[in-house]
Amino acid sequence: MLKRLSISNYALIDQLDIDFEQGLTIITGETGAGKSIILGALSLILGERADSSAIRDKERKTVVEATFNIKSYNLKQFFNDNDLDYYDGELIARREINPNGRSRAFVNDGVVGLATLKELMTRLVDIHSQHSNMLLSRPSFQLSILDSIAGDEKVLAEYQKLYSQFIETEKQLKEMRTNDERNRSEEDYLHFQLNQLKETNLKACEDEELEQQQRRLANASSLKEDLWKVSSILNSEENSLLDQLRDIHDTLATAQENLPDVEGMSERVNNALIDLKDIAQSVSAIEESLNDDPAALQHVEERLNAIYSLERKHNVKTVDELLKLQSQYEVRLAAIDNSEETIKALEQKLGTIELQCHKLASELHSFRHDAADQFGNLLKDMTHKLGMRNLDFHINFSDVDLNSTGTDAVQFLFAFNINQEPMPVKDTASGGEISRVMLCIKSIIAQSMKFPTIIFDEVDTGVSGEVAHKVGDMMGDIARHLQVIAITHLPQVAAHGNSHLRVFKTDTDTQTLTSVERLNDEEHVTEIARMLSGSEVSQAAIDNARALIQGRV
């Protein structure tokens, strides 16, 4: 519900803070006092276009801020989807208009686009004016009315879950068919590429091993010469390094008997001697294994060239990438081989889900068809009480393809005059007639359909007497289930208010300002008496006002 509306520097408003309560809030005031200005400011919060001409002081920005209690609204997913901060229980929406005409919107101090703000506010506020017929004209709204009366929530939820599976399976089938068609057009190409890779008989990391072999074979002569030189130094027939180390070891071993300072050195030299003997043997073995083999080098280079050619062709850099590509070709060809079975299985699954959807859609149709008669009778009865005695109302059903709500398309048809052919509401009703019809509809479904805060903007224009009493009764009934704010000139409607705000203008030497005051019980009576009798409030008018208020209880 709307808790507070703050407006600054907008039209005739310098600074205005209005607190709202649950139930029915009545807003009254003389024509031109500024009631429409307050609604205009609120429309900025609802995402409507900003007009810089409404800025009062061109040196300051205009700010409109609304605070809502959202505990009873399921909005957390919306906040998550739009990356907004969610505070459980309260929401603050703000709109700022700079003197240059640029505006910004905020939700809980986070900047949002106007489209996001507008979508969010449609879940919180519904402004219904005399000429507001768009909502009633929407087929989706008409269908939601029937669902709210039909009590088909469980069936509809089950259907929508199943329909989501239908859409997902249909998407999978479409993708499978598309992929299969593409793969089949490339089947010969895929086989050619795969066979070429298979014939090469690639092995993981083979390129690295071959490159090492190539370097070894290409440099065999120089490597053999270097290793022979090392082997000669370590273990030649005369005065080799190993022979010298043996002499050093023997000398140190003798010396340590009389010189403790060299104790252990001979052992260390012996360890070095053991390591070098092992190195000498290894070097000698490697040197003997090295052969200058042009045929082997040619074989390695031919293998490498074949690999490099494939890498260039497929725009990859390693054998492992070629093997990965080979695996992908195998998967795609296997998919082609199995595609007919996969597609057939998906088609069967889709057909099964479609049958189940149609079965549930048929149940929904039955619920809605039964609700249509009930709703039609209620609507005609209520509108007749509001002075539309000639109203005729029908609901046309037509079959459509499966969609998120079933297979029903509905159209509300109205005739407001005798012998008039029922037609869509936008083609036949006046603003006042639409307003009273919508009032009746919202009264019927207020208990079963989760509406946001409803604001009625002088929807009672053109009615009086007993009809005015009925309008007031209906607004009072709706307000028992949700927050209602009604701007009205009818005392019969005002008498039903749980709280009463009066809009008025004050003049100074330099400016005219719009203000709002909250009326206490006695002021509430006096204001209704003024609405009954005009500027001169008589005792009879006061008594009549009290009778109106007591009569609505």
Explain what this protein looks like in three dimensions:
Helix content is 56%, strand content 18%. It is built from 19 helices and 15 strands. The strands form 3 sheets. A 6-stranded antiparallel β-sheet has the order 2-1-4-5-6-7. Helix 5 (139-150) packs across helix 13 (319-385), helix 9 (220-235) packs antiparallel against helix 11 (265-289) and helix 18 packs across helix 19 (539-552). The longest helix has 67 residues, at 319-385. The protein is elongated.
Proportion of residues in β-strands: 15-25%
Number of helices: 19
Principal-axis shape equals elongated
Helix fraction, binned, reads 55-70%
Q: Order of strands across the widest beta sheet?
A: 2-1-4-5-6-7
Quaternary state of the chains: single chain
Low-confidence stretches: none
Biggest sheet, in brief? Answer: 6 strands, antiparallel
Distance between the termini: 23 Å
Q: Count the strands?
A: 15
Radius of gyration: 44 Å
Q: Averaging pLDDT over every residue, what do you get?
A: 86
**Structural class of the secondary structure composition?**
alpha/beta
